[in-house]
Specification:
This protein is of the alpha+beta class. It folds into 2 domains: 143 residues, Fructose-1,6-Bisphosphatase, subunit A, domain 1 (Fructose-1,6-Bisphosphatase, Chain A, domain 1, 2-Layer Sandwich); 111 residues, D-Maltodextrin-Binding Protein, domain 2 (3-Layer(aba) Sandwich), CATH 3.40.190.80. It is 35% helix and 24% strand. It is built from 7 helices and 14 strands. Strand 1 and strand 2 form a beta hairpin. Helix 1 packs antiparallel against helix 2 and helix 5 packs parallel to helix 6. The protein is globular and about 50 Å long. It starts with 5 loop residues before the first helix and ends in a 9-residue tail after the last helix. Bound molecules: D-MYO-inositol-1-phosphate and calcium ion (CA). Calcium ion binds next to strand 4.
């Protein structure tokens, strides 16, 4: 496969994220057509499906030889994601679908591109707040074209930690979520759970949060955010403190490596099946 023009990929993703954002914003205040997937709390709306179809069809016109992974294109019967070294667009059409269904304005479209299995381009757009985050490997991270940086905080007692409170049908996962929330409420400066893994990562990238962690996400929730966080100088790790693995369904982002390791050592771990 010829060399990938990452600048071209980034500008295409930015243009399409804005168009997808318009679709999401137009639907945001309207009544949603909601369907349950694996459980009553695992939701999909017609907007999720329409945005994914739009993004795939537009990207395929430009990058016919690239590969594609999207949340709404993976079937529910345990189908595994196939990530190869080829350029691969990894898309979450709406991250924070539960928020979207309730018109809670913390939602985004997330577009990541991997090459050799590494996330190298990330675009995340919250159309309600008009926050456009973007990053390309080696070129920095930006919010609405202004350069952003992680805070560099190293002290947990001064850190704002962003976790997850998504209700899961799995008792083991729920116990883990409760335990970790309790620990962070006791040890961190503050603890928040806004409900979109991709935007949580962006908050760490801007320095608004100092740590975020989540277990049970999928590659489409974090592919774009991993580039944005790394380019903003944040540490991107597995929740146990090891190397981040895009298909492992766990991520921890921190303003400094030492704070990342400290939080990892305090978290109870939950390991869902790999993507
Ligand atoms: C969800 C959100 C949520 C996280 C879940 C994800 P979705 O993504 O990112 O914050 O806790 O694990 O599934 O389903 O709204 O795209
Ligand atoms: Ca989604």
């Amino acid at each position: 496969m010829p060399e990938v023009d990452l600048e071209h990929c980034l500008s295409t993703a930015l243009k399409l994220a804005r168009q997808a954002g318009k679709m999401i914003k137009d639907a945001f205040k309207k009544k949603k057509n909601v369907t349950c997937k694996s459980s009553p709390r695992d939701l999909v709306t017609e907007t999720d499906t329409a945005v994914e179809e739009f993004l795939f069809s537009e990207l395929r016109k430009v990058y016919a030889d690239h590969r594609y992974i999207g949340e709404e294109s993976v079937s529910l019967d345990g189908e595994k994601v196939e990530l190869t070294d080829d350029p691969t667009w990894i898309i979450d059409p709406v991250d924070g679908t539960m928020n979207f269904v309730h018109s809670f304005p913390f939602i985004c479209v997330s577009i990541g591109l991997t090459v050799n299995k590494e996330p190298v381009v990330g675009v995340i757009y919250n159309p309600v707040l008009d926050h456009m985050y973007h990053a390309r490997k080696g070129c920095g991270a930006f919010l609405n074209n202004q350069k952003i940086s992680a805070s560099g905080e190293t002290d947990l007692s001064k850190a704002l930690v962003i976790g997850e409170m998504g209700s899961s049908e799995i008792a083991e996962k729920r116990e883990c979520v409760y335990h970790n929330a309790k620990t962070m409420m006791e040890k961190a400066h503050g603890f928040r759970c806004p409900g979109s893994a991709a935007l949580n990562m962006c908050l760490v990238a801007t320095g608004a949060g100092d740590v975020c962690y989540t277990m049970g996400i999928h590659c489409w929730d974090v592919a774009a955010g991993a580039v944005v966080c790394r380019e903003a100088g944040a540490a991107v790790l597995d929740t146990a403190g090891g190397e981040f693995d895009l298909l492992s369904r766990r991520v921890l982002c921190a303003s400094s490596p030492s704070l990342g390791q400290e939080v990892a050592s305090l978290l109870h771990q939950y390991q869902p099946p790999r993507d």
